[in-house]
Amino acid sequence: MDKPGPIWIVRAGERAAFVDEFLQEGVVAIGWADAGPVEATVPDEELDRRMATAYPDEKEGWRRVAAAMIRRFAREIHPGDLIATYDRNRRVYPLGTVVGDLQWRDHNLARVRKVKWTHEVDRDLLSVTARNSLGAIATMFRLGPEVAAEMWAKAQPIGAAAPALVALPPTSDDDEETEELVLREVEAKAQQFVEDRLARLGWREMQDLVAGILRAMGYRTRLAADGPDRGVDIFASPDGLGLQEPRVFVEVKHRRSEQMGAPQIRAFLGGRKPGDRCLFVSTGGFTKEARYEADRSAVPLTLLTLADLRDLLIEHYDNVDAATRSLVPLRQIHWPAD
């Protein structure tokens, strides 16, 4: 089927709770009713003011995203545009055409546009690339032309006789490669967000986090009291007293825009004895000279950057205590295995 133009995706609420209303009433709709009617001509400043008044307990970022969705729904969708939503229960994307201007009603689905639903496409028939594009969590967004063309090419008229059930084709090498690329992208984004959260910690919280990771690795820790620490922020050892090896001396510098150089490394190593082990954490990273100084040190010294700290936290997260978890709460993401 050759259907021109991009496609708007408008989600039918959380878990597609309103998909039946969409299809039975011939509409797409979004909520945020407490902000009141919003025409396309309402100034941005006025909409932002309404959102702040209607949702004072929500975070500013949440209100900003919601306002952006309202603006797009009011200003960018027009009669004649192609539209789709998702029916999770049947695993199909109903497709149609917008046939009406923006309407308002005092209802959970407050902002409405009439739609003539004509086709639907089975999600399982779409490529991995298309399914990945359709997995965006935004209330509404616009598909790129290639995915839109694929959806229309595989769509069937609503009410047409369902084709005989056949086994879906096995996953192709191209699909497996695409899934792997998507997984890498998800992992990279997750890692970056964990780093973002780490970077927002205060200096004392960062010390607490490093100590918590060391405890999860089997050490007992002592933190220096506030004030001059003589170059050691954390002391760790198996017994917590330093009577058992290894004795680990830890310096933590939480200065995001400042790399640690060779002078800081030499100052930290001053006074260390044979048998000591040293750990220097710098969230701003290290200069080449600092790494050279660490490599040539007679006392074993490990340098950790923000990314290294992130990896250690994720690796040992199952064993960190509740106080450490509260500093950077993480949740597990499940992904299909081979």
Question: What does the model show?
Answer:
The radius of gyration is 28 Å and the shape is elongated. It folds into two domains: 163 residues, ph1033 like fold, CATH 3.10.590; 129 residues, Trna Endonuclease, Chain: A, domain 1 (3-Layer(aba) Sandwich). The chain is built from eleven helices and 13 strands. By secondary structure, the chain is of the alpha+beta class. β3 and β4 form a beta hairpin. 36% of the residues lie in helices and 19% in strands. Strands 1, 2, 3, 4, 5, 6, 7 and 8 form an eight-stranded mixed beta sheet that branches. The protein starts with 6 loop residues before the first strand and ends in an 11-residue tail after the last helix.
Order of helices and strands: EHEHHEEEEHEHEHHEEEHEHEHH
Number of strands: 13
pLDDT averaged over residues: 86
Tell me the structural class.
alpha+beta
Summarize it.
The protein has 338 residues and is of the alpha+beta class.
